[in-house]
Amino acid sequence: MQVTDNQLKFIDQYLENSGIKYLDIRYEMTDHIATALEEKEGVFYDEFQAYMVKNKAELLSSAKKFSKAATIRAFKMLVKGLVKPQFYIVATILFTVALLLNQRGYNDAVFTGFTILYFLLCGVIFSSYVHMVVINKKPEWSGVNRFHYAAALTVYILFLAVKPQTIFTDDIYLFLYYAVIISFVVMIISSYLKLKKMYKLRFNE
Amino acid sequence: MKNSQLYKGSLTTIIMKLLEENGRMYGYEITQKVKSITKGELNITEGALYPALHKLEGEGLLDVEVEKVGNRLRKYYKLTEDGQKETVNRLAELEEFIKNMQTLVNPKINPDLQF
């Protein structure tokens, strides 16, 4: 039999209703199921039902494992970002500018600038994640969503757990801390955008 | 998968070997190829195949190409350069394992190991 567009939509909808929320996983599974059904001669809905009775548990288990693997990959990507040259370049530029301004007596301006930038960038990551999960609720690509989740969680923990003003009494170390953290957050945002672009290109969206 | 405990550890090597021979393949094609080569003796389930493929992709051993085939998108997997090197290592390891197993299960084949 040939699986029609409407039948493909039916498979996709069935998978979504079964809890498989990521588009890339559903695309792959829909193709797998459709290819298996196309080898059968019977009626689509009967064959689909029979296929699901036999394979649904395996498919759902596979989707769960995929989500878990995507989360681990996302955290690995975050860590990998720390060895990228861009991270060191941005950190060095920020720290150098801060030192130069500090030498000229603009200590307070540097501190205020760093604090605003830090809050702004963390806010972008955190609020965009909250927007995606709570308001938009649009299905995302597994890799992008898990990376976003990992980024928001890391930023949230850093934001809550580390109070730099109480740890560093010397301004130089405080500047260094902000330069490193801001570079890290910039790197996270840049990786997120690249990842999103990669998925869009891959799936022609 | 049949006798899953015995085959489980070799699944990624089986996938890599097939991709080495066939260039690029999609998930369903891999299951059917294994079934046909083993004359239906070995049946890779979706629950075993896709986590293995995604794990290899995550390790950078597989690359992905998505193509529109008919009315739907299809995800093809192929070996990366690292994947090609790793396939050689894993196949050598698997061959060594099979040899050792054969020696242990049937020691008469290897006279050196007889006491």
TrEMBL record, chain A:
Highest taxon above the source species: Bacteria
Alphabetic keyword roster: Membrane, Transmembrane, Transmembrane helix
Ranges that cross the membrane: 86-103, 109-135, 147-166, 172-193
Native species: Flavobacterium rakeshii
Record-given protein name: DUF1129 family protein
Lineage: Bacteria, Pseudomonadati, Bacteroidota, Flavobacteriia, Flavobacteriales
Automatic annotation (TrEMBL), chain B:
InterPro entries per record: Metal_resp_DNA-bind_regulator, Tscrpt_reg_PadR_N, WH-like_DNA-bd_sf, WH_DNA-bd_sf
Listed Gene3D superfamilies: Winged helix-like DNA-binding domain superfamily/Winged helix DNA-binding domain (1.10.10.10)
Coiled-coil ranges from the UniProt annotation: none
Transcription regulator PadR N-terminal domain: residues covered: 15-86
Protein's UniProt name: PadR family transcriptional regulator
Source taxonomy: Bacteria, Pseudomonadati, Bacteroidota, Flavobacteriia, Flavobacteriales
